[in-house]
Design brief:
The protein has 264 residues and is of the alpha/beta class. It has one domain: 3-Layer(aba) Sandwich (Rossmann fold). It is built from 7 helices and 11 strands.
């Protein structure tokens, strides 16, 4: 194994992010951000394999220029090369368009023996980008992993979380694996890696460098879009205490029937 590519994403660190009324997409402007939690587990899985094989761990993210801070943090933990895919043309990309861009980027940087992703992103919760990316790279995909071990033949033995059991799978490389939050947590930065990260180059990729057709990017290249947003119904809550007197149960039932009658 020579190279592992870890796909990372910055997500809002608060649930109070609003929506853009024109596009119905999340309005990320000004929101505090963090590394998507599941992606941190993916990075740790890559670094653990690097400890055994000495392979390169390339940290790759698609986002605004500010996402460079995410890559710097990955370098502080041990990532060996950093790639930022950024272009205003990418704004509004759904999981399919995002996977298309990531696939072209991975091919542009020389490919990978193994691609690791978190199983889902907090801001989208679709879990689709990893499998879509695998399809575009024409490599196998295994999802919901809670364990990854390197076998003697340099295949991977993976533990997959299912509804009622754990499934053990042998995976031949190249492949894409999506990991769950149950994997080992990301290691803390080391002093040596922190010093090295300060001088590491963050290499940039955009639609021109990748030679991408604008019609396949952003909203134009997306198959899903939010047509309408609805606010949750308001709730009129009130409380009436019925004490344990002789007719308390009767009064409580009558009050309940009245409420149900008002609501149809």
């Amino acid at each position: 194994m020579k190279r592992i590519v870890v796909c990372l994403k910055q997500v809002p660190s608060t649930a109070s992010v609003g929506f853009d009324p024109k596009t119905n997409n999340l309005d990320r402007s000004g929101a505090a951000v963090m590394t998507n939690p599941a992606d941190g587990f993916a990075l740790e899985a890559a670094l653990a394999l690097k400890d055994r094989t000495g392979c390169e761990v390339a940290a790759l993210t698609m986002g605004r220029p500010e996402a460079a801070s995410l890559l710097r943090e990955a370098a502080e933990c041990g990532a060996t090369s950093l790639w930022l895919i950024t272009d205003p043309a990418f704004a509004g990309s759904d999981s399919y368009a995002t996977a298309f861009i990531l696939a072209r980027a991975i091919k542009a940087i020389g490919g990978a023996d193994l691609v690791l992703c978190g199983r889902r992103a907090l801001d989208g919760e679709t879990g689709q980008t990893g499998p879509e990316l695998a399809a575009m790279l024409s490599i196998p995909s295994v999802t919901n992993l809670v364990g990854i071990e390197l076998s003697a033949e340099e295949n991977l033995i993976c533990q997959r979380l299912r509804e009622s059991c754990l499934e053990s799978l042998a995976v031949k490389l190249p492949a894409l694996l999506s990991v769950c939050e149950g994997m080992p947590r990301l290691r803390p930065p080391s002093i040596l890696a922190m010093r090295r990260s300060r001088s590491m180059e963050i290499r940039h990729l955009d639609s021109r460098i990748l030679g991408l057709d604008p019609s396949r990017l952003g909203a134009a290249g997306s198959f899903t879009r939010v047509d309408k947003l609805s606010q949750p119904p308001s709730r009129d809550r009130s409380c009436e205490l019925v004490h344990g007197e002789a007719n308390g149960a009767t009064r409580a039932c009558e009050a309940l029937l009245t409420i149900l009658g008002r609501r149809g």
